[in-house]
Design goal:
Order of helices and strands: HHHHHHEEEEEEEHEEHHHH
CATH superfamily of the largest domain: Butyryl-CoA Dehydrogenase, subunit A, domain 3
Number of strands: 9
CATH class of the largest domain: Mainly Alpha
Shape: globular
Mean pLDDT: 95
Low-confidence stretches: none
Helix content: 40-55%
CATH topology of the largest domain: Butyryl-CoA Dehydrogenase, subunit A, domain 3
Number of helices: 11
Largest sheet: 4 strands, antiparallel
Strand content: 15-25%
Strand order of the largest sheet: 2-3-7-6
Length: 371
Amino acid sequence: MSTLLLNEDEIMLQDSARGFLDNAAPVSHLRGLRDAGDTHDPKLWAEMAQMGWTGVLVPEESGGSDMGHAAAGVLAQEMGKTLVTSPFLSTAVMAATALRQVATDRANAALAQIAEGRVIYAIAVDEGHKHNPEAATLAAIEDGNGFRLNGSKGFVVDGGNADRVLVLAMAEAGLTLFDLPADRDGIARTAASMIDARDAVSIDFSDVQATGEDVVGVVGDGMSVLRPALEAGQAALAAEMAGLAAGAFDMTVGYLKERKQFGIEIGRFQVLQHRAAHLWCETEVTASAVRNAGRMLDEDPENATMAVSLAKARATQTAKLAVIEGVQMHGGIGMTDAFDMGFYMKRARVATEWLGDYGYHAERVAAARGF
C-alpha cells in the first residue's frame, strides 16, 4: 500500500470523525459561536476528549493513544471541512509534541491532562507581523534561581481560553521555552478580533516570575523542543486547510448542480466544469502532500522539514483557490454573510498567516533543496 493512502485505522478514524462533526460541529455551529461572541465550546472539546482525539499524540503511558501525526492530520482535515473551532492544534498537537520531547514528571503529568481534555494550551511564539520564532526578543532575565519575563507576544491562537501557555523567550544563554499558567501574576491577555471567529490574543509579560521548573527542556536550547512542535502544528494546519478546500469545493459543486440559468443547471456549462475539475485536481495533490508530511513526521522527523513546509505552502495556495472559486461561482450570494462560503474565505485568510505564510514555507523548501 502506498504511504500516501490511509491505513485501516486511519480510515476508521476518518469515518467516525466525519460522522461526529457533521452532527456536532457543522458550519452553522461556528456561525452560532460567532453570533454569540464566543470562540470556544467546552462541551464539544469534552466530547473530542472522550473520543480520544486529545490524546492522539500523547504516549500510551500518559493516557494517550499515540496514533501519530498522520492520524492527527486525518482529524484536522475533517475539522477543516466544517471549520471546527477548537484548541486541537495548539493543545493536542503542538503542546503535546513539545512536552513529550522532555522526560520529566511535570511534562508527563501535563501530557496526561491533555489526553483527558482537562487543560488547554496556547503557544506564544511570534512578536512581529510574520512568523519568525528565531527572532523572539521577549526577555528572560535571570533573577535568583529563576527568571523574570518582560515583553509581548502577538497572534497567540487559543490564548483567550488557555489554562497554560508555552512561551519562547530570550535568556542570556539563548532562546528558552517556558511552561506557565496563563493567570500568573504579570500576564495580561488582550483579545484580538479575528475575522474567522477564532480565539486569539496578544499577551503582555510584565516581570512575570518563572522558576527553573517552568523551563521546558534546557535553558538556551528552547528551539530543540519547540521546533518539532511547530512542525507538527504546521502539518496539522496544512491538513485543516486541505479539509477547508475540500469543504469549499463540495459546497461549490453542490451549488453548480442546483443553480439554473436559461433553464439548465450551471454545472453543465463547460467553462465551469473545467474550473471545478482544476480545483478538484489541486485538492487531491494537496491532500497527498499533507499525508506525506504526516508520514514523514511519524517515520523520519529529523528530515521532515521540507515535507511539512511543502504541505503548508500547497495547502495555503489550494485553500485560497478554493474559496476564490467558490465565491465567484456562487455569484452575488457568495459575497453575503448569510451564505457560508464567506466563513471558508475568512478561515483560509487567517490560516495562511498562522505558523508561517506561503513565502516563509517556500523559502524553507528552497533551503532544504539546496537553493
